[in-house]
Specification:
Blueprint (H helix, E strand, L loop, with lengths): L1 H13 L11 H10 L32 E6 L2 E5 L4 E6 L4 E4 L7 H8 L6 E5 L5 H4 L11 E5 H8 L13 E3 L2 E6 L2 E6 L11 E4 L4 E4 L11 H5 L3 H12 L5 E3 L9 H22 L5 H11 L4 H24 L10 H14 L11
Parallel strand pairs: 4-5, 5-6, 6-7, 11-12
Antiparallel strand pairs: 1-2, 2-3, 3-4, 8-9, 9-10, 10-11
Helix pairs in contact: 1-9, 2-9, 2-10, 7-8, 8-10, 8-11, 9-10, 10-11
């Protein structure tokens, strides 16, 4: 295997490191040694993260209610519990609900019930993940028509056993679908896999409101591992797709504030910087021989340990460079800096074909 051959060469080059080769940089020794520790590091309760910038300013959550309902005009409302958010549209004939996050849970029923007496007639799944639709069964009593992309149906149907909290959709589509209930219109479209296969773009044209879940986090850096996304090229491209919609406000599915086009553009720049920083790290941004030397010496023949050391240093190099430029601009950019860089390094290697020392020579 090319990997083993490469590390065999590196092992010969660094076999003297354990004896105190003076050319090894201390910073790489620390990272490499840490990469083979078995004991976990300090918990996050012991880490002081950077102060949050004003970009994260959010709506106030009434502690008694535990949720906030915002009127976006024209019968469109959004609901947040501070961590998750979704929206619903009140028409002359019934209510269209988009997603049912279980963290909001029964509070979503209260939010809708305190806004209208009309029943929920349609429920749209943005994608299959339980943290966004795991409360769908709460609407079983009103028997709504459940709508989702065909990929979402396929993935939910493949679960064994099937999850009763996420009823299977009744209506599916491949490219575009328009939900019309009374005087409300919600346009659904699919532009290929991004966060997950089947993750939808939604747009209320009359109110100029867009919804896209788990891609942009208004005012904040993305959640861990780029929002646990499955296909980073599609997830990255989703920023540009979202910008083609003529919206004033968008609902992001997370954080306690709405988004604007400026939020999309800002995160797009962050992702581009992360991409470039990680590509630079892979393509010679650190001394590979020095970085993995202690791990090679301590784990003869263990290619997994050696490659973990390589990935850790490449990731940390990228994370440090990117974070230094974005602290104070996006909230919590340092919290998941390593995890987001790690996901980007992996995407560069296996999806973008940026292989650095592992490319065909």
């Amino acid at each position: 295997m090319q990997l083993i051959r490469m590390f065999s060469v590196l092992f010969l080059a660094v076999s003297g490191l354990a004896c105190g080769n003076p050319h090894v940089h201390d910073e790489h020794e620390v990272v490499a040694r840490d990469s083979i520790k078995i004991a976990p590091g300090p918990s996050d309760t012991q880490i002081q993260f950077a102060p949050l910038p004003s970009s994260v300013d959010s709506v106030p959550i009434d502690p008694t209610l535990g949720y906030f309902v915002g009127d976006l005009g024209g019968g469109v409302y959004w609901v947040t519990d501070g961590a998750y958010s979704n929206m619903f549209l009140v028409s002359t004939h019934g209510v269209i609900v988009v997603d049912a996050p279980p963290t909001i849970g029964h509070k979503l029923l209260y939010a809708i019930g305190n806004t209208t007496r009309l029943p929920v007639t349609h429920l749209v799944y943005s994608h299959l993940h339980a943290d966004h639709i795991g409360g769908a069964s709460l609407f079983n009593a009103s028997h709504p028509t459940i709508i989702a992309h065909v990929e979402t149906l396929s993935l939910l149907a493949s679960l064994s056993p099937r999850d009763p909290l996420r009823p299977l959709p009744h209506v599916t589509f491949e490219d575009n679908y328009t939900v019309r209930v009374g005087n409300q219109t919600l346009e659904l479209s699919y532009h290929g896999p991004n966060h997950t296969p089947g993750n939808l773009f939604m747009y209320a044209p009359a109110q100029r409101v867009a919804l896209l879940i788990d891609v942009v986090f208004p005012g904040w850096a993305p959640f861990s591992e780029l929002a646990m996304s499955g296909f980073i090229p599609g997830w990255t491209a989703a920023h540009d797709v979202l910008l083609t919609f003529d919206f004033d406000v968008f609902v992001a599915g997370h954080v306690a504030r709405l988004g604007t086009k400026n939020d999309v553009l800002l995160q797009k720049k962050y992702i581009e910087d992360l991409h470039d920083s990680c590509a630079s790290a892979i393509n010679g941004g650190f001394n590979v021989t020095a970085a993995i030397g202690p791990t090679v010496a301590a784990n003869t023949g263990n290619a997994w340990a050696e490659f973990k050391a390589y990935l850790r240093v490449a990731t940390q190099t990228c994370a440090d460079n990117t974070t230094s430029r974005w602290l104070g601009i996006l909230g919590a950019v340092d919290v998941f800096a390593f995890e987001n860089a790690y996901r980007m390094v992996d995407a560069l290697r296996i999806e973008y074909d940026v292989l650095g020392p592992f490319a065909v020579s």
